[in-house]
Amino acid sequence: MTNPTDPLSECTTKVIAMPADTNPDGDMFGGWILGQMDLAAYVCARRLVKHKIVVVAIDNVVFHKPVFVGDCLECYTHLEKTGRTSMTVKVEAYVERRDSQEKEKVTEGRFVYVSIGADRKPVPIQG
Prior knowledge:
The chain is mainly beta. Helices cover 13% and strands 43% of the residues.
């Protein structure tokens, strides 16, 4: 399934928001949402490399709307840029609301990964 606003993206992960990950006001913690986005970005990035990869930066994260318990969080990924040792993955998180099945974009951001060798130093992606 592709993101309607980005035909090159794909739905990489889906998860139901559960009560254990809420803040004191009853909304999902932003850190939980970022964690789900990081997992999706990792799945997208790891397809490109044979080595380990690590996230080195998270850029331009915007929380547009809250995520509620019972919503289905869907993370769409698109490999935006590939360098010699790094790659940038754009992630857009949508929810399918529990009660209405309406889809809304809730969060977006970019995750930068670096390919590393056994010594944990950057290595070329292709090689």
